[in-house]
Predict the 3D structure of the following.
Amino acid sequence: MIIDALQTSNWDRELFEELRAGGVDCVHVTVAVWESARETLSQIHRWYRWFREHDDLIVPATSAGEIVAAKKGGKTAVILGFQNSSPFEDDLGLVEVFYRLGVRVVQLTYNNQSLLGAGCYEPHDSGLTRYGKEVVRELNRLGMVVDLSHVGEQTTLDAIEFSQRPVAVTHANPKFLHDIPRNKSDKVLRALAERGGMFGCSLYPHLIGGRQVTLAQYTGMIARLVEMIGIDHVGFGSDAVRKCTPDYLNWLRMGRWTQTADFGPGSAANPGWPEWQEWFQTPADYPNLQQGLRDQGFSKEETAKIMGGNWLRFFGEVIGD
C-alpha cells in the first residue's frame, strides 16, 4: 500500500497514469486554497467529472475501506481536501455540506491568519480561535481530518490538544532537517504523536533543503523521526505540484489578500518552482523511496507502514472504515 497524503497538481490523464506507474494506491488532492464556497463547488465538480472520464484509473474515496477496494481493483483512490478553511467562509454549517460532497481533509489555514487561527508565516500566533474550535469540533463529529501542515506553532499545538480525534500534518518536514517556518518543531512532533496523529514527510525541495539532498540523507531524517515519535506515526505527503504554472504559484502565495509577491520568510531566494531531486522527480518514483527505506535499515514490515500502512490505519480511525 502506497499512500501520498498531499498533492497539488494540475491534473490530467497523464498524471493519473503517473500515479499508477508509481504504484500510488491513494492520494489526497487539494481542491481549495483561497477559493470561496462557490468557487470550491466548481472545483469539486471538476473532480466528479474526472472520476467519470478516467474511471479506469481513479476512484473517489471517503473511507479506509474504499482505499482498500481501489487497490484491489488496480486503481488509485482519491481523497478530496482543502488546504485552507476559506470554503467555509464564516458559516459553520458549510463544514457538513462539504463533508456530504466528499471532502475528508481540512487544513485550518494556509500560511496566514484566518478566522480559525494563525498560519506559519504570521509573526504573532495567538492560537486556535473560538470559531476555530467550533470548526475542529465539527470536523471531529463528522469524521474529517484536521490538517496542520501550513499552520502556526501555537495554533497547531492548540488544535492537537483540543481535537477529540487524532490530527495530521499531511505535508511538512521536521525543523531538524531544514529550519524554516513551514517545518515543524520537536515540540509539535512529540505532541502530535502523543495524541495518535500522523506526520507526512514532504518531498518538496524547498522543504528538504534543496535538490542536492541525497536519498540517504532524506531517509536518514525519517529514521531519526521514527526514533523520536515512533514508527506508527510517519508516512509521506509528497507535496507534488506536477504541471503547475508560475501563475498558479502566484495564486498559492498571494491569493487575493495581497497584490505583491509574498514568498514567506526565508523563501525570497526561491521565487519560482524548484528543481526536484533526481531520486524523486514525480510520484512515479515512489519505488525509489521504498528502496531507500530498506537501504536505511527499515524492515519490510516497517517500510510498509511508512509507505502507506500508517496512513490507512489513521484514515480508518478518523474518516471511518
